[in-house]
Specification:
- The protein has 153 residues and is mainly α.
- It has a domain at 15-87: Orthogonal Bundle (Multidrug-efflux Transporter Regulator, Chain: A, Domain 2).
- Helix content is 46%, strand content 3%.
- It contains five helices and two strands; from the N terminus they run H-H-E-E-H-H-H.
- The chain has a two-stranded antiparallel sheet.
- The radius of gyration is 21 Å and the shape is elongated.
- The structure holds FE2/S2 (inorganic) cluster.
- Pfam families: MerR (PF00376), MerR-DNA-bind (PF09278).
- Residues 12-80 form the HTH merR-type domain.
- Keywords: 2Fe-2S, DNA-binding, Iron, Iron-sulfur, Metal-binding, Transcription, Transcription regulation.
Length: 153
């Protein structure tokens, strides 16, 4: 798990409370936990309890998701910090700065695709030679599965 609750934590929260205070659904809390983004401890009655510091993690996860950062990347980024530690403003600034670079790169790619698509509007040729969005000879297919045209540098 990326974030475990530090030993000796007090005032642990139920899933309902942490969901309400973080503004996400209970199912989202469980989903984040299943993906290793947060973790809980179990009571003697086998109920999950969450450390209050996780509220900040959940806020960061939500912001990152809104910018399109994949959950796996979010998890890896959070793993840099001691499990269950309170993330500082400086740490958040570092994460946000990195994700801004990622967002800029995706914006550049999408802008280029939009500009190339502009050439297609009203054309309709879908020419292997002329259309910038075609994939001549499936050349990009050799680079692997998926949307290779989106992954161009
Ligand atoms: S359809 Fe003609 S340039 Fe894309």
């Amino acid at each position: 798990m990326a974030q475990e609750i530090a030993e000796g934590s007090t005032a642990l929260l139920s899933v309902g409370v942490i969901a309400r205070r973080s503004g996400v659904a209970v199912s989202t809390i469980h989903f984040y936990e299943s993906k290793g983004l947060i973790s809980s401890v179990r009571t003697e009655g086998n109920q999950r309890r969450y450390a209050p510091v996780l509220l900040r993690y959940i806020a960061i996860i939500k912001v990152a998701q809104r910018t399109g950062i994949p959950l796996e990347e979010i998890r890896e980024a959070l793993r840099r910090y001691p499990p269950g530690s309170k993330l500082t403003a400086g740490q958040w600034k570092t994460l946000a700065s990195e994700w801004r670079v990622d967002l800029d790169q995706r914006i550049q790619k999408l802008t280029r695709l939009r500009d190339e698509l502009d050439q297609c509007i009203g054309c309709g040729c879908l020419s292997l030679e002329e259309c910038p969005l075609r994939n001549p000879g499936d050349a990009l297919g050799a680079k692997g599965p998926g949307a290779q045209i989106l992954n161009r540098p």
